[in-house]
Amino acid sequence: MKKLSDPVRKVNAQCVGLDVHKSVxxxxxxxxxxKLVEEGRFPSTRQHFERLAQKIRANGPAHFxxxxxRSSLWVHSVLREQVDESQVHVAQxxxxxxxxxxxxxxDENDAWWLAYLTYEGRLPESYVxxxxxxxxxxxxxxxxxxxxxxTKIINRMKAHLAQIGLVVPSSSVTTxxxxxxxxxxxxxxxGMRGQALRGCLDELSYYEDVIQEWEQAIDAISQGLPDxxxxxxxxxxxxxxxxxxxxxxxxxxRRFHSAKAFGCATGLTPSEHSTSGKQRNGNxxxxxxxxxxxxxxxxxxxxLRARSGSGLAVGDWIRAKQKRMGVKAKAxxxxxRKLAEAIWRxxxxxxxxxxxxxxxxxxxxTT
Length: 367
Fold this sequence. Notes:
This protein is an alpha/beta fold. It has helices spanning 46-57, 72-82, 97-100, 107-120, 131-163, 176-188, 191-222, 226-234, 240-250, 259-265, 290-305, 309-325, 328-349, and strands at 14-20, 24-30, 36-43, 62-67, 88-91, 270-272, 281-284. It has 3 domains: 14-120, Nucleotidyltransferase, domain 5 (2-Layer Sandwich), CATH 3.30.420.40; 131-222; 226-360, no CATH class. A 5-stranded mixed sheet has the order 3-2-1-4-5. It has a two-stranded antiparallel ribbon with strand order 6-7. The longest helix has 33 residues, at 131-163. It is globular. Residues 1-5 and 361-367 have low confidence and may be disordered.
């Protein structure tokens, strides 16, 4: 059953709803009693946001609310310079049903609903992390994009080689043996296929340099974030890059009130449709941050490859889960969710991962 983490309370101040678009922003102002006192529109520029904030502040304290979008970070930054950070709110657009399901959806109505929900204290808010976390988030996401591009190039090269009856003599093309094989064959193959192979080798070298640059940036930022080192040391299946990704995407893990709440935020929790005493579980909800979900799933897969220690214990748990469920993907998702809950307990209780009792299971004898 869902419960409110904070009691519903009305805001005894002006509430400003902002429907921000690329070129224009529509605003609505409610007073301390929830009555409409002003509405209008202005160009979506830094100067106009500053002028509006200064004008509203002249009449007393005010809260500013707008929906999360690709423009929300710079708007949040501008407004935070004018008022206290606690008075700037970023709404979760998907969870505002009054706007999403409205039969009369206009910019003016959207702005009014944002202001009114803020006044009522019922606004579903998005968390905006601090600047350091945002910098780390950019670095980890760019590295992930570069790795995916490198994977596409490798697959293209293997496809070209397969067309001429050749197979790379290693599972990884980053080994010296595989690199020598690729370079020799790329030079020997004639025609368009040889040109394509040589082009792929150049692209591969470029993206490996890009990946190295982003990894250096991740390492530099992580030096000032002890949470990254803590996750890397204590959570199985997690290296520096995955630890940095988890911290970048989850931000302050301590803000979640329970391990189950953090597990739900990852989107790895099974959906539930229960009624009349019958419980039905479906696929995972896929709510929340997809990059965090990916990182936790990768950590679970890393545990499946482990041959000793706590990683092996988690891998055995996932394999047993897979045997009961009969589906690999569901078992890996369950493992990722359990790792998320273990991370929450690490930060809230200082509870280190116990390989003899993974995920609170029955304690096994150790040698």
